[in-house]
Amino acid sequence: CAAGPAxxxxxxxxxxxxxxxxxxxxxxxxxxxxxxxxxxxxGILMAAIVAVTMVAFHQVKSPLQASCLVFASGFGMAxxxxxxxxxxxxxxxxxxxxxxxxxxxxxxxxxxxxxxxALYYVSVALTVWRPRAVLTSLAVLPCLLFCWVLxxxxxxxxxxxxxxxxxxxGRLCTFFSFREVWGPILFIFVFVCTPTVTSPxxxxxxxxLGFTPWFIGMIDIATLVAGILGIWTYHTYFREVRFRSLYxxxxxxxxxxxxxxxxxxxxxxxxxxxxDEVFVLVDEFIxxxxxxxxxxxxxxxxxxxCPDGVExxxxxxxxxxxxxxxFVSSESSxxxxxLLGITSHDLxxxxxxxxxxxxxxxxxxxxxxxxxxxxxxALRARYKLQQQLDVERRISSNGDAAPPPPSLTSQxxxxxxxxxxxxxxxxxxxxxxxxxxxxRSAGM
Length: 444
What we know:
By secondary structure, the protein is mostly helical. Helices cover 73% and strands 0% of the residues.
């Protein structure tokens, strides 16, 4: 069926719905086992749904049918992402920084490589086949995933302990109340939600610079390659750098690199003899590397200190904060462009918009003090200790002499053989007196 731009925008909105409710999908997987499994059964079902919908696209005859299939495929892919991240959190919780960082680096590298290969395949296949045939051919991917999930052995399979949804929500609220958690999250949110010139620059590249769709596709692939390089740059050189130091340096580097588009907008690069294509590729490449170096520390830390029983939900909420920031950035960018009178036909104030976004890009530094200054190991140890102390206080206040639940102590006391009273009191005093504190009254 023929479709115009409005219809495609509607399809995109429908497909984005499941990705905005990923925390709910995570809560469903964590609290409602399917066939005695929290991951495997859902994975089999979702892989089958995605495969069937992609094959069914070949028989679409109306926009309504297409919308239903787009939603179903988006739901399946979003759910599969939640399941995969939940499994990886389960495997990396309690592991060393090196092991956890490597695991998440491999995960995101494979994901970016898959996006790049799929993008390249689709761009080539569309020159030979019709779009429906291309979509149908992509069904082989969920079919392969379906076969792999059938052979997957879920962790703790057969001795599943499901946490009720109400208790899971309580654990999440406790988890996100710690400054070691919400401090970096708030910084990343502010960093992401600042306005950008992405949309106006697209028109500048296509209309003014004359970039072809093929070259813009190459920019996207180069960005994915740069993302992989940024991931391994962080893992190799920066994984032990303190959060506050890394975020400060990353923000300053992003600001300095953000000035380079002004050279392109004002056509200074032409006077210097630098081709537009080379300038754009290098600029996008370096910015992607810096962005990944800022994003990866939070992903690694969240995987290491995630509460038991809510792995998929917790990680999905981390990513939802990023998605919310991107939505705010998109809307604020559109508002700023409207205020400056920038349209697809009038880009005369594009340079001014870039200057404003550069200044706003430094705003995260205003809340840098909220980001913990400790390194990964200190943050994890302090969070786990405070988590244990909170449980002990609740038990003491209730007059119950029972030990803390295994879900909260299995990754600390079990590994260390327990803490005697003298050592525990000393660590408690140190944890409560040093910075950054766990004072939950220090609101955002």
